[in-house]
């Protein structure tokens, strides 16, 4: 019958039912008439006709099955029947729905984050053509390095694979608003930045080529939030003058509300004027974004950039020898730091869902075993196996739908908690908040469908294979032995093995995190307050003025009540910010910059080491003798002395830094090592220069308080404004907060894996409890006999626990094998812990055995209270 015919039948269901009844009645009457003709009585003729014709109800169902009416009727009856069966077992239904809700909810919450960060395309037109281009250091095996301005100009002019290319430099900016300075995150970009991303402004225009010419009118673009917050969303402000770093700029545009650039929370954009000046020769500080030409592959662009990089080496060998270039897809590049952790978390909740499926499948099998007599009767009455499978599967489907609904509620709550734990510095590639949307709901539906198939189909197929004679004879008592029991045990083994796998991962991450936070950073973060100052280049363009400004600021702060010490550095420790450069030894011939040794460089003030609690090993700190025009001096750390002086005395030695080789600097002190970029990075050779001699435009102040550092925040800010009220102060926070933020990513991963492992162990415990309880119910007669023959309670407990521990042992072997097989996935996420850490593996195995014993001992103790007389009558 065609689909159209079935649809027509749906519209005249009652008429077709009447016609079918009439036709069946007609056949019965004709058969009965034939019987009467051969001499049968009326009653005998009717009974014989009915017997020969067969089950009329079954014939009706078979007839209806060929059209959509019958199919819909059967589905409706199956759903009503399944609903009644679930309502008759509220305890089973509640446990099954809750178990599924935990699995589905955890998957939905984690997928929301994974989808928002890793799977969605970047929020720009044709985002697949966007790439980031880095310099790569062959010497240091570093594939991603910021770019030299002259090299960028060569890339821009000679690369043939890109439609456009732009350079970016992040900076803090002082913006005058309503008579007071505010510090905002800004970006200097070359004019092609917005056209490369293909994002038009909300108001006004973006940059054009002339805006990047030195000496051209200064122009600025604002973010939507800053425009609303500081300028009341006034559209007529376009073309007005606003003060940026004490210099008037013309406001030419406002970007849309949802515009952002990954990892740069910028609110102000100004042009970056680049020229082929020799002053750019040595520095590397640019980030480069480019758009591929249509049809150009990533590999072709990479080959093109290798060609151009070779050109820059030939053009400026002193600075570019040992350097090349790499091209990476932009989305992959901005998310590389969280890609593996997020996939690990998604795999973890996937395992959790499989455990939930195994758990519910076991519950269905145990419940279904008690319904073997019912299934056998229905089969004996003519119900085909496919119909029984469908009815059992419909029950699973209803459980899944209820689990999905509850799971979405759990997911919403869990997502809020998850977002509170996500590190502030996580590389979110878009500005929209992470939420459960249509894509996530589709994933939830598909995950739920997978769940229904996994936990529902296997039990349904197994239970539908009914031995009629055995089932009708044994009923609900012993119908679960044999194949069903083996399948149930297999599900429990799978649950425990997966729970162990998750627990090993959580244990490794927990030990790794414990090792990380126990690392001595080399300074004392307690009672430290930090804040950031960016000086106006227009007002403090002169190095001497900048030096005097910072000296006066520190003097004011040190005189503030509650302040014990104060200092400054241009990059705060544990903020993943470092600066490095090459240097040479003044008593040796100077090699080219490409062949020179390198070190980290920090510009600090006098008193910085005392304030931070970094020990001075030998020599002296910077002091009043180290002025702007005095002999340049430097302090090095212990790692520098070990690396370049083989641990010998470095005091009095002279160095030449690559950006100013004419002025040698003398080493006057050696300090203890301290962690700079990240807590997990070993201290690297570092050269400290005096801010009084080499002042930067910005500085991070560190202030040690005698009590709670937050209590001196206002007075410290007032002290800074007493020196110059037009310089804004930003990022006021304690060093303990900085320390906590620096370990937020590993803490986030450890907490989530610990939660998922805890849920997995709880579900596995339920599974063990269920299988042991069911096994006892099946062995009631045997246990009663043993007790009647004199078995002690301990013997019964030992007998029951033996079965549980056999299952646990098999699960341990499988789980450990899986953990070792997957160890390489976690290796890059661990700190000073190996993926096969014996302490972790032993602890987790002990935990699993302990949980197994706890789950099994409760039903085992009930088994000791079996009454032998009752048990002997149980059969």
Task: List the main descriptive attributes of the protein structure presented here.
alpha+beta, 875 residues, elongated, 22 strands, 6-stranded mixed barrel
Structure, explained:
Strands 1, 2, 3, 4, 5, 6, 7, 8, 9, 10 and 11 form an eleven-stranded mixed β-sheet that branches. Residues 1-11 and 475-481 have low confidence and may be disordered. Helix 24 (744-778) runs parallel beside helix 28 (838-863). The chain is α+β, with helices and mostly antiparallel strands and 875 residues long. It has four domains: 3-65, no CATH class; 140-321, no CATH class; 338-517 and 746-872, no CATH class; 536-726, no CATH class.
Topology readout:
Elements: H1 3-11, H2 13-37, H3 42-53, H4 56-64, H5 68-87, H6 90-119, E1 130-137, E2 142-145, H7 149-158, E3 162-177, E4 180-189, H8 193-197, E5 203-204, E6 219-222, H9 224-231, E7 241-244, E8 247-254, E9 268-271, E10 287-292, H10 298-315, H11 317-320, E11 323-329, H12 330-334, H13 336-369, H14 372-380, H15 385-421, H16 438-464, H17 468-474, H18 483-517, E12 528-534, H19 543-558, E13 563-569, E14 580-585, E15 598-604, H20 608-612, E16 616-619, E17 633-637, H21 638-644, E18 654-657, E19 665-671, E20 686-690, E21 698-705, H22 713-723, E22 729-734, H23 735-742, H24 744-778, H25 780-788, H26 793-821, H27 823-827, H28 838-863, H29 868-872
Parallel strand pairs: 4-9, 6-8, 15-20, 17-19
Antiparallel strand pairs: 1-2, 1-10, 1-11, 3-4, 3-10, 5-8, 6-9, 7-8, 12-21, 12-22, 13-21, 14-15, 14-18, 16-19, 17-20, 18-19
């Amino acid at each position: 019958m065609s689909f159209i015919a079935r649809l027509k039948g749906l519209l005249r269901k009652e008429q077709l039912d009447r016609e079918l009844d009439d036709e069946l009645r007609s056949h019965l009457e004709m058969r009965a008439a034939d019987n009467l003709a051969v001499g049968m009585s009326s009653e005998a003729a009717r009974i014989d006709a009915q017997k020969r014709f067969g089950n009329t109800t079954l014939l009706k169902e078979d007839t209806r099955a060929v059209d959509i009416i019958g199919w819909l009727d059967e589905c409706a009856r199956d759903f009503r029947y399944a609903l009644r069966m679930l309502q008759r077992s509220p305890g089973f239904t509640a446990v099954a729905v809750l178990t599924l809700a935990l699995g589905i909810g955890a998957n939905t919450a984690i997928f929301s984050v994974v989808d928002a960060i890793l799977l969605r395309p970047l929020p720009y037109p044709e985002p697949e053509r966007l790439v980031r281009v880095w310099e790569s250091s062959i010497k240091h095996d570093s594939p991603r390095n910021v770019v030299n301005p002259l090299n960028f100009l060569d890339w821009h002019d000679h690369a043939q694979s890109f439609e456009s290319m732009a350079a970016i430099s992040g900076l803090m900016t002082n913006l005058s608003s309503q008579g007071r300075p505010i510090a905002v995150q800004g970006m200097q970009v070359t004019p092609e930045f917005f056209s490369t991303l293909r994002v038009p402004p909300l108001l006004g225009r973006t940059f054009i080529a002339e805006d990047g010419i030195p000496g051209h009118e200064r122009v600025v673009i604002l973010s939507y939030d800053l425009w609303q917050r500081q300028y009341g969303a006034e559209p007529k402000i376009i073309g007005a003058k606003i003060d940026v770093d004490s210099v008037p700029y013309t406001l030419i545009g406002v970007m849309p509300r949802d515009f952002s650039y990954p990892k740069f929370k910028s609110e102000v954009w100004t042009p970056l004027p680049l020229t082929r000046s020799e002053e750019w020769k040595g520095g590397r500080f640019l980030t480069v974004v480019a758009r591929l030409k249509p049809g150009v592959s990533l590999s072709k662009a990479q080959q093109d950039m290798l060609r151009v990089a070779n050109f820059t080496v030939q053009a400026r060998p002193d600075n570019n020898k040992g350097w090349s270039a790499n091209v990476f897809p932009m989305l992959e590049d901005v998310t590389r730091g969280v890609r593996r952790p997020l996939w690990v978390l998604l795999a973890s909740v996937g395992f959790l869902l499989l455990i939930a499926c195994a758990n519910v499948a076991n519950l269905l099998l145990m419940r279904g075993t008690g319904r073997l007599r019912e299934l056998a009767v229905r089969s004996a009455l003519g119900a085909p196996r496919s119909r029984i499978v469908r009815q059992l599967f419909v029950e699973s489907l209803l459980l899944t739908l209820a689990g999905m609904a509850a799971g979405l509620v759990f997911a919403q709550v869990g997502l809020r908690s998850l977002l509170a734990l996500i590190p502030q510095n996580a590389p979110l590639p878009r500005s929209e908040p992470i939420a459960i949307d249509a894509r996530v709901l589709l994933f939830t539906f598909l995950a739920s469908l997978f769940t229904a198939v996994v936990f529902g189909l296997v039990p349904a197929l197994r239970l539908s294979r009914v031995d009629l004679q055995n089932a009708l004879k044994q009923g609900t008592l012993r119908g679960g032995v044999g194949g069903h029991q083996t399948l149930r045990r297999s599900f429990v083994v799978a649950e425990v093995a997966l729970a162990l796998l998750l627990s090993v991962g959580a244990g490794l991450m927990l030990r790794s995190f414990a090792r990380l936070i126990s690392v001595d950073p080399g300074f004392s973060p307690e009672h430290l307050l930090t804040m950031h100052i960016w000086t106006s280049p227009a007002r403090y363009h002169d190095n001497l003025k900048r030096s005097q400004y910072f000296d006066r600021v520190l003097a004011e702060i040190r005189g503030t009540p509650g302040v014990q010490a104060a200092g400054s550095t241009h990059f705060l420790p544990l903020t993943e910010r470092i600066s490095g450069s090459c240097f040479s030894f003044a008593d040796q011939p100077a090699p080219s910059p490409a062949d020179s040794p390198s070190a980290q460089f920090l510009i600090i003030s006098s008193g910085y080491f005392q304030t931070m609690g970094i020990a001075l090993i030998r020599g002296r700190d910077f002091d009043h003798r180290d002025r702007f025009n005095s002999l340049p001096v430097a302090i090095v750390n212990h790692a520098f002395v070990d690396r370049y002086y083989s641990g010998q005395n470095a005091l009095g030695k002279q160095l030449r830094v690559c950006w100013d080789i004419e002025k040698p600097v003398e080493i006057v002190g050696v300090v203890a090592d301290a962690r700079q970029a990240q807590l997990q990075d070993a201290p690297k050779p570092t050269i400290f220069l005096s801010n009084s001699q080499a002042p930067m435009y910005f500085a991070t102040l560190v202030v040690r308080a005698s009590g709670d550092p937050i209590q001196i925040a206002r007075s410290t800010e007032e002290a800074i404004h007493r020196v110059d009220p037009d310089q804004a102060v930003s990022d006021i926070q304690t060093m303990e907060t900085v320390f906590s933020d620096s370990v937020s990513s590993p803490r986030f991963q450890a907490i989530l894996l610990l939660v998922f492992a805890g849920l997995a162990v709880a579900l596995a415990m339920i599974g063990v409890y269920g299988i042991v309880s069911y096994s006892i119910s099946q062995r009631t007669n045997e246990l009663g006999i043993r007790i009647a023959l004199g078995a002690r309670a301990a013997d019964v407990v030992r007998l029951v626990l033996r079965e549980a521990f056999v299952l646990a042992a098999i699960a341990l072997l499988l789980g450990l094998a899986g953990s070792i097989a997957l160890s390489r996935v976690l290796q890059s996420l661990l700190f000073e812990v190996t993926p096969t850490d014996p302490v972790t593996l032993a602890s987790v195995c002990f935990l699993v055995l302990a949980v197994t014993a706890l789950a099994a001992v409760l039903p085992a103790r009930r088994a000791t209270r079996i009454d032998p007389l009752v048990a002997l009558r149980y059969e």
